[in-house]
Amino acid sequence: MAKCDNGKWIVLEDTCVIKVIKELLDSSEVLQVEDVPDFVEKLNEEIKVIKNDVAKSPNTISTIVEILGNIALIDTLVVNQPVIEGVLQTVDVIIGEDSRESWTALNANESNNASSDLLGSMELLSDKIVGTFTFETGAILLNRSTFDNSFYANLNSSVVLDIPNTGFSNASITTITFSTLNIVMPVRSSSFNTSLFNTNNTDPVNALNAAVVLIKVNETIRNVTLSYTKLNTILTQDPQCVFWNFRLFDNRGGWDSDGCQFVSDINDTVTCRCDHLTSFSILMSTGIPKEFKELLDIITYVGVGISLASLVICLIIEGYVWKAITKNSTAFMRHVSLINTALSLLIADICFIIGASIADNPAENPGKNNYNVPVDPCSTATFFMHLFYLAVFFWMLVSGLLLLYRTVMVFSHMSKAVMLAIGFLLGYGCPLIIAVVTVAATAPGEGYITNKEACWLNWEQTRALLAFVIPALTIVCINIIIVIVVLFKMLRRGVGDAAQRDERHTLVVILRCVAILTPLFGLTWSLGVGTMLDSTNRGLHIVFALFNSLQGFFILVFGTLLDSKIRSILARKSPTTSTGSNTTRSTSGGISSTGLNWFHRLRGRRNVYRTSEAANSGSAGASESFSNI
């Protein structure tokens, strides 16, 4: 399906099927039982010739599955060894590793059910097999045999099957082991969120971690034990013993654990016990363990509590020293940026707590089966979190640009009003635009927020989280470049003509830039990207939780407490500064000896600032560039 746009054809949907396969589909719809052997042989031969093209064409694969379905539905069909071997050789072509992308596309299409149809056809054909034999092709092992009372077999060294004490005599059993069907079958289970249909991620939590084994016996079996060798030994969490239930999700099918129970997980072998026969495998969690999630929750909530307290203290201190600390435009704008950074993070953390209370966390509500979030309140909390977390980074950008401006454009002068306008436009205007555009682009398709357990931007469906990660990490990079430029300018300026005091002052400013800007630039979110790329890495999760939840504490320490002038003002018991004279008064009627010592020690430091205050306006930018940063 395509449309013409400006003289060019644009493919909207690839519905093409290889011609010979389409012709075979037409033939299969009128196929007679006596023609099945020759037809299967022809199908197998044709597919071997074009197998590379078949693997890359989702619609051709779907058509082949439809052909196999037509064969399986033929009444009175008896499947002998040549027929089933031909069928399995055909199936082997379409379930190989090179067909992974095609199956991903098919499983993401809600209108296509090729994977479930393929397994259904295999079950129908297995019921019609006659004779006893074993056949193996690339990724498939078929065993057809009989047994008395008990049956035990190691199937392709990937699944061990044990059926004990049935009491049956000369019972027929058919097993077909598919070692690569994890490529084909979607991992949706009975708790699957149906909103993930029509996405390329049918279940972001689980993975099919063993071969799929189809078992058919001509008697009723109530006790079967299966031991699976894991495909991915890294996965160790929450093994689920499952079978494919064709009736789930309006007959689209899904993995179900009804009648199966987990026995053990030892030495990368998962053992299950079931009370019926069909197609079995195991699902395993790709996330972090529940116990570890509880630890992360504790770290996060304690950290956020410390962060909130630190931000409140930071704002109180800034308000207390405001008049004394903002005597020139550079110091004024630096502390405006710091206050708005702290205020934005404070609001964002409050929204985080609200969002956490709205969503149901498995660690806090272990008895629930449904952890889907309420859309409207969770969307509101997510919007404000997105807005104000972005504002934190953009106010960091304002601080970085201020540092660059005062370092590079030494003799330039910009009024406080212009600085404020630029600061608020960047600090709040840009985050607001990004947050609104994100909602407008993703909310109509229900892809704005995560589906369950937490209120935050969606990742699996729409990648809405990139609307936060990309701006944040971009600002981190910009500020790193700014720091490099500032360091280069300052070192270059201090060579040869710098007095000892100036050199010491330069070193203090370099240290201050590194100490303040590095943690505030949100290096933490680089770890956040790492947790998305490697969701099972516990170290990344712990470090990210620690640094992310303690950002408010970092602002207090590096933005306020490490400022020597703020410390000197706070050290005075009753500070009262005068902008018009060099006199410092005490409101207490007298000054203790300790207070006098502080006064004399600080007096020498204050002369540095008085030098800048006495300078004319034309050189104000040069003298105040570093005095209060």
UniProtKB/TrEMBL annotation:
SMART domains linked: GPS
Membrane topology per record: Multi-pass membrane protein
GO terms of biological process kind: adenylate cyclase-activating G protein-coupled receptor signaling pathway; cell surface receptor signaling pathway
Xref: InterPro entries: Adhesion_GPCR (IPR051587), GAIN_B (IPR057244), GAIN_dom_sf (IPR046338), GPCR_2-like_7TM (IPR017981), GPCR_2_Ig-hepta-like_rcpt (IPR008078), GPCR_2_secretin-like (IPR000832), GPS (IPR000203)
GO MF: G protein-coupled receptor activity
Pfam name, any one: GPS
GO cellular component, one term: membrane
Domain GAIN-B: start-end pairs: 131-290
DNA damage recorded as keyword: no
Chief location: membrane
Alphabetical keyword list: Disulfide bond, Glycoprotein, Membrane, Signal, Transmembrane, Transmembrane helix
G-protein coupled receptors family 2 profile domain boundaries: 296-563
Parts of the chain that traverse the membrane: 298-317, 338-359, 383-405, 417-444, 464-488, 509-528, 540-562
Compartments, record wording: Membrane
Family: Belongs to the G-protein coupled receptor 2 family. Adhesion G-protein coupled receptor (ADGR) subfamily.
Annotated protein name in UniProt: Adhesion G protein-coupled receptor F5-like
Protein source organism: Gymnodraco acuticeps (Antarctic dragonfish)
